[in-house]
């Protein structure tokens, strides 16, 4: 099994395994960002389909690798701790919108009327430095749940669930990294600079959070079901509030929907075949 091979290479320390998981998903993000060197001008149709795929992977992973194991294995069938964590994770992402705009607002330039403080960042595009700073903050916030989810998965000690989760989040980081690079290039940033910066930025966020997530649940085992729910709730919020709405605004809704279904299928296959 893949879990046995992983155990043989990296050992059984959940924190070390969380570090490895964080490095892997950051590497996938860098790969996606670097695709701009060979795929210089992907169409909006292709990007919507790819982001739909990422949403499907995250959606299935939230349930198969976090919510269901959290309830069945780590809460002895009691759903309350996990569901509390789901609510807190979603609330955290919702309130974070007060501080920075939605990540996909910065990718598309379109702001929804129900966004928190809708007038706060009016005219931000007129100030390049402010725009870049906001861009970094928003995408960083977007990546936080993913790093935390991988860390919590490895912190549980269940490699059969953590490895598919790591691979799923890594795979969905590829189209996400590409989409962010394309947006940054369209905003005038240099390709070589941003492709390198995207990988460094994702590592700065995802790797420490993966380690923190693993360490937290190892140190305080009672936190595990809450942490699993929190990571799942945060990912569900990103899917529903950012990715899916933005892939359904440019006329390629069917492609995005098919991408979402395919992403869910891929995650379910990984969960079963590697678990």
Offer a quick outline of the entry:
With 275 residues, this protein is an all-alpha fold. The protein is 77% helix and 0% strand.
Account of the protein in words:
With 275 residues, this protein is mostly helical. It has 10 helices and no strands. α2 runs antiparallel to α8, α3 packs antiparallel against α9 and α6 packs antiparallel against α7. It starts with a helix and ends with a helix. 54% of the residues are buried.
Shape: globular
Structural class by sheet pairing and helices: mainly alpha
Tell me how many strands there are.
0
Overall mean pLDDT = 79
Unreliable stretches covering 5 or more consecutive residues: 116-129
Sheet of most strands: none
Helix content: over 70%
CA radius of gyration: 18 Å
Compute the separation of the termini in Å.
8 Å
Order of helices and strands: HHHHHHHHHH
How much strand?
under 5%
The tally of helices reads: 10
Quaternary state reads single chain
């Amino acid at each position: 099994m893949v879990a046995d091979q992983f155990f043989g290479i990296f050992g059984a320390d959940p924190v070390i395994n969380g570090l490895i998981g964080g490095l892997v998903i950051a590497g996938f993000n860098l790969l996606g960002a670097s695709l701009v060197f060979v795929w210089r001008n992907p169409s909006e149709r292709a990007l919507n389909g790819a982001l739909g795929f990422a949403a499907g992977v995250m959606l299935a992973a939230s349930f198969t690798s976090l919510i269901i194991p959290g309830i069945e294995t780590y809460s002895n069938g009691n759903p309350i701790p996990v569901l509390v964590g789901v609510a807190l994770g979603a609330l955290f992402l919702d309130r974070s919108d007060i501080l920075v705009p939605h990540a996909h607002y910065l990718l598309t330039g379109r702001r929804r009327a129900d966004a928190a403080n809708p007038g706060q960042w009016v005219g931000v595009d007129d100030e390049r430095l402010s725009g870049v700073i906001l861009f970094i903050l928003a995408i960083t916030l977007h990546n936080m749940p993913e790093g935390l989810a991988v860390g919590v998965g490895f912190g549980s000690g269940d490699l059969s669930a953590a490895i598919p989760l790591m691979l799923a989040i890594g795979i969905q980081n590829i189209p996400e990294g590409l989409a962010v690079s394309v947006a940054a290039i369209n905003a005038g940033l240099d390709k070589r600079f941003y492709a390198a910066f995207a990988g460094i930025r994702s590592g700065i966020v995802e790797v420490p959070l993966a380690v923190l997530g693993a360490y937290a649940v190892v140190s305080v085992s009672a936190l595990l079901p809450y942490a699993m729910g929190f990571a799942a709730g945060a990912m569900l919020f990103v899917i529903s509030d950012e990715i899916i709405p933005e892939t359904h605004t440019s006329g390629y809704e069917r492609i995005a929907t098919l991408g979402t279904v395919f992403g869910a299928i891929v995650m379910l296959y990984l969960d079963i075949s590697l678990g």
